[in-house]
Design a protein that fits this description.
Elements (H helix, E strand, L loop, with lengths): L1 H13 L9 H12 L10 E8 L5 E3 L4 E4 L2 E4 L4 E3 L3 E9 L1 E8 L7 E4 L8 E10 L3 E6 L13 E6 L5 E5 L13 E8 L5
Parallel strand pairs: 10-11
Antiparallel strand pairs: 1-6, 2-5, 3-4, 4-6, 7-13, 8-12, 9-10, 9-13, 11-12
């Protein structure tokens, strides 16, 4: 009827302005578009440890490898190359490394959602990256893809949703590189007990 249609239009109009919006989704969308709001998730605790290689040959440890110290999971953010018969001090970060895989359709500004209610807001704010087809690394940005300037850099935009999950948005080829259709995206992230 005419009255309910008018009320729907008024409600929709109310949700488009920061001073009158009531829906948490509307408020977040307005904040992100006007002010570039990034909801910060947890930060990983850090510890420095000594790693010893007792073997005569060198050892390479890939970044985001899992360690366990006193019953807590830790990981390394950088690759470690440990020469034979040496000890090195390295930084480890508290958290459990996880990964999720998605396949692209090739559309511009394609979105993917990561995480679940089980790990809501526990995904580290600093530890998220993406490998395309297991080879090319894309880095995250919390700035708008338009702010990165033209050039099709291998980056993706990420932000926290009100549910604690992560929204990722890839570029259009000009502002952020556009992954080719049917590419396999491997998102690597850490969940942590750290503070928000």
């Amino acid at each position: 009827t005419g009255v309910s249609a008018l009320m729907s239009v008024e409600a929709a109009l109310r949700e488009t302005f920061p001073d009158t919006a009531r829906s948490s989704k509307s408020i977040l969308a307005i904040a992100k578009s006007l002010w570039g709001i990034h909801l910060i998730r947890k930060k990983c605790a850090q510890v420095t440890v000594d790693l010893t290689n007792d073997n005569p040959t060198s050892v390479a440890i890939a970044k985001y490898s899992q360690f366990n110290i006193a019953g807590f999971d830790y990981f390394n953010r950088e690759s470690i190359n440990l020469a034979g018969n040496t000890t090195a001090s390295i930084n480890l970060y508290q958290g459990t490394v996880s990964s999720e895989t998605r396949t692209t359709t090739g559309i511009i500004n394609e979105k993917f959602y990561l995480g679940s209610a089980a790990n809501a807001f526990n995904i580290s704010d600093d530890d998220l990256y993406c490998l395309i087809n297991g080879v090319e690394e894309y880095s995250k940005t919390t700035d708008s893809l338009f702010e990165t300037g033209p050039g099709g850099l291998p980056i993706f935009y990420e932000n926290s949703l009100p549910t604690g999950e992560i929204e990722t948005i890839f570029g259009d080829g000009l502002y952020g590189k556009l992954p080719v259709a049917s590419s396999v995206l491997s998102f690597i992230y850490a969940t942590t007990l750290g503070k928000a």
